[in-house]
Amino acid sequence: MALLEVENLTIAYKTRRETAIAADRVNFSLKRGRSVGIVGESGCGKTTLGMALLRLLPSNGFVKSGRITFDGMDLLGLPDARMQRVRWKRIAMIFQAAMNAWNPVQRIGDQILEAIRTHDPKITKAEAVKQVEQLYELVEIPSDRIFDFPHQYSGGMKQRAIIAMALACNPDLIIADEPTTALDVIVQDQILQKIKAIQKEKNIALIFISHDIGVVAGVCHEIMVMYRGKIVEAGRREEVFEVPVHPYTRALLSSYLTIDGVFEIRDKQAPAPPCTPAEALSKELCGYVHLCPHASEACRSRPPQWREITPTHKVLCSLCR
Ligand SMILES: Nc1ncnc2c1ncn2[C@@H]1O[C@H](COP(=O)(O)OP(=O)(O)OP(=O)(O)O)[C@@H](O)[C@H]1O
């Protein structure tokens, strides 16, 4: 049985001018110990989706329709106090800017201890310290650095400590939103490998959000490609990364892979400009129609249909059979 089930989830933002849909009828499920990457360019709705799962949308954002079931619980119907307990304890998050979120005047170890003791008031201080030491071992920070202040840590260490914090309550699911984007490439790779190893070792489910399909493919079992608020292709990593079908996925990959033929670039074209989902989402047509080198009359006149490429690989495109 799936740990997380997202059904027909539509999320919108109210602005002074309009109500704009930022994620449109999103469906997916995730089992314990599995990982899914949500990939797409800036503004396509990835963060909105992650925030909705945590019920942390900004005040003008709301779930318009759909259902989120987590471990049998209807997350959208959960009273706030219970949702508060689910957050961190069952579903933890790692954000791009998280490493800057440490309180600068409090030692990092104390901040992690506080999180552990808030969620488990019965734990003794000594037990909690032991837990932090184990977490530091896991994320490979020497335990004599636990009680340093944030300014004494490098960027990579701060982000590793955020991972330790996310793991502190033994979550079943981690949502990681661009967790390494602010770091240099070498540190980025080390942290991604760490996330992958911990996820496997602890059998945690992972939702990994990134604009970089290469990063997602390196970490996740499954990939969902998002364009203007819609998932347009979804499948196992090898299927989407090695045999991409949707013209947008191919464009995304062609901007990623430039050498030695893991993927033959069939749709060489300029990368899509930043998207403004609001304009396209109200129409039922494919949001990529104006950029697609293969768009046909059918694409301009009918909504795209989901097609099954394999039992685990599907694409929202009228062209793909
Ligand atoms: N608080 C808000 N009010 C109104 N519109 C918003 C708000 N937050 C996001 N949006 C809009 O919703 C859409 C999706 O934004 P979102 O941040 O989820 O995209 P994203 O794919 O995560 O982009 P990025 O990678 O840049 O964070 C965008 O068009 C964005 O402008």
From TrEMBL:
One Pfam family hit: ABC_tran
User: Matching PROSITE patterns, A to Z?
Assistant: ABC_TRANSPORTER_1 (PS00211), ABC_TRANSPORTER_2 (PS50893)
According to its UniProt entry, one GO biological process term is: peptide transport
The answer, when asked if Glycosyltransferase is one of the entry's keywords, is no
Quote the subcellular location field of this record: Cell inner membrane
The molecular function terms in GO held by this entry are: ATP binding; ATP hydrolysis activity
Q: Which family does it belong to?
A: Belongs to the ABC transporter superfamily.
Name of this chain's protein: Peptide/nickel transport system ATP-binding protein
In which organism is this protein found? Desulfosalsimonas propionicica
Instruction: Give the source lineage, highest ranks first.
Output: Bacteria, Pseudomonadati, Thermodesulfobacteriota, Desulfobacteria, Desulfobacterales
